[in-house]
UniProtKB/TrEMBL annotation:
InterPro entries in the cross-refs: Glyco_hydro/deAcase_b/a-brl, NODB_dom, PgdA-like
Protein name as annotated: NodB homology domain-containing protein
NodB homology domain sequence ranges: 31-304
PANTHER family: POLYSACCHARIDE DEACETYLASE FAMILY PROTEIN (AFU_ORTHOLOGUE AFUA_6G05030)
UniProt cross-references to Gene3D superfamilies, sorted A to Z: Glycoside hydrolase/deacetylase (3.20.20.370)
Molecular function as annotated in GO: hydrolase activity, acting on carbon-nitrogen (but not peptide) bonds
GO biological process: carbohydrate metabolic process
Lineage, top ranks: Eukaryota, Fungi, Dikarya, Ascomycota, Pezizomycotina
Length: 304
């Protein structure tokens, strides 16, 4: 076993009201759901700031521009405590549902809002609901964004995000088999660092119910979630001398009392390990870019 270096951090999606009012077709939202978002922006943020202060952790708050404009006092507390503020769309709209032009309009506006609020350009991005598009990485690259946190090519290593120029043929059984029996073409790396996303390190599906949506059951015992997250940490610690461990949470989920207690246990467990360093996701990306964290290369696809 070599000397360990483990970069651990929290990416906090400050969805607040934005994810609830993103009804996609403009249909009205139930005000009780909107109030859950207000809880996140107020009670949730305050409790997370206290948690990070207690353990001396700097985290990354991915914040829709709508949340900054609607809750400036709360986001000022985040900014002034020295945490990173990253991009997360305007109103949590799904990139996968927008045209390339509308994706760019949202990116331009949200970069502008964050730059004015923070006094510097944002370095990182995470796609609302990790619902991405082929245009996303090229647009982030053109804007000079250092890193993304939306893709899942790996779970515990940083890498350069593929530029998504590779093509694949979806299986369409209304056509002859010869029309779709084709390999994916070769992936090519972009200049954007990927700090990978991971649904198994996300608090929303197990801990926040959305009635009627099976993927957000929401009533899992935090002991079960803690075990699921820490088993991933234990495996990576056993297998890798160097790795990253980014966890994704939401103030309206992790601000709940029982979930704060879970995070205290997780942080204290991780802190018992040699070589652990807590940092923002942009600092993880810089460690990789500047050669201090080896990471991996993502390969695959056929040369056609
Ligand atoms: Zn989100």
């Amino acid at each position: 076993m070599g000397k360990k270096r483990v970069l651990v951090g929290y990416g906090i999606d400050v969805d607040a009201v934005a994810n609830w009012i993103n009804t996609c077709d403009g249909s009205p939202q139930n005000p009780t759901n909107v109030s859950r978002g207000v809880y996140g922006a107020t009670v949730g943020i305050d409790r997370l700031l206290k948690l990070y202060d207690k353990y001396n952790i700097k985290a990354t708050f991915f914040t829709p521009a709508h949340s900054i404009e609607s809750f400036p006092k709360q986001l000022a507390k985040v900014r002034d405590a020295g945490h990173e503020i990253g991009l997360h769309g305007y109103t949590h709209e799904y990139v996968s549902q927008l045209s390339a032009k509308e994706q760019q309009a949202v990116l331009t506006r949200s970069i502008d809002v964050l730059t004015k609020f923070c006094g510097k350009r944002p370095l990182g991005y995470t796609a609302p609901a990790w619902s991405t598009s082929k245009e996303l990485i090229p647009q982030l690259e053109a804007e000079g964004i250092l890193y993304d946190h939306s893709f899942m090519h790996h779970d515990v290593q940083p890498y350069f995000a593929p530029d998504n120029s590779q093509t694949w043929i979806e299986t369409d059984i209304s056509k002859s088999a010869d029309a779709w029996m084709m390999p994916m073409t070769k992936m090519r790396p972009s200049k954007v660092v990927e700090i990978p996303a991971n649904w198994h390190l996300d608090d929303w599906p197990p801990l926040q119910p959305i009635p009627g949506r099976a993927g957000a059951q929401g009533f899992v015992d935090t002991d079960v979630v803690e075990k699921l997250w820490l088993q991933q940490f234990d495996f990576a610690y056993r297998e890798c001398d160097t790795f990253i461990f980014p966890m994704s949470i939401h103030p309206q989920v992790s601000g709940k009392p029982h979930v704060i207690l879970m995070h205290e246990r997780i942080i204290e467990y991780i802190n018992k390990h040699e070589g652990v360093e807590w940092m923002t996701l942009s600092d993880m990306a810089k460690e990789f870019l500047e050669g201090r964290m080896p990471g991996v290369g993502i390969e695959g696809g056929a040369d056609l």
